[in-house]
Prior knowledge:
Elements: E1 2-4, E2 19-22, E3 25-31, H1 46-63, E4 71-78, H2 84-95, E5 101-106, E6 116-123
Parallel strand pairs: 4-5
Antiparallel strand pairs: 1-2, 2-3, 3-6, 4-6
Helix pairs in contact: 1-2
Amino acid sequence: xxxxxxLNAPAPGGHYxxxxxxxGQIYVAGILPITAEGKKLADATITxxxxxxxxxxxxxxxxxxxxxxxxxxxxxxxxxxxxWGTVNQIYAQFFGDHRPARTVVPVxxxxxxxxxxxxxxxxx
Length: 124
């Protein structure tokens, strides 16, 4: 088991790893719209928040020796389901022709007042 920690994504805010690699699988912890430097984007638009979590996902996957085309499953948590059209459009641009399995979960509230959180499973 390998615990992933990259400076190119926000540091964990608690007792967990950004991701764990085991038997060729990467389990990415919940990603919030926080920059690698620690700036919380709670007041940013849903577009900016979504772009940030996807950039964080890329950084974590790269640190684990993988890439977005190797993502198998994504769970997206949104605090306002009416923003889903925007999130889905950005998500589709990010993944292109690759279509991982996905679950969308409307929730309220998210930590720090964020509008979105994402976790993923990928392979190396």
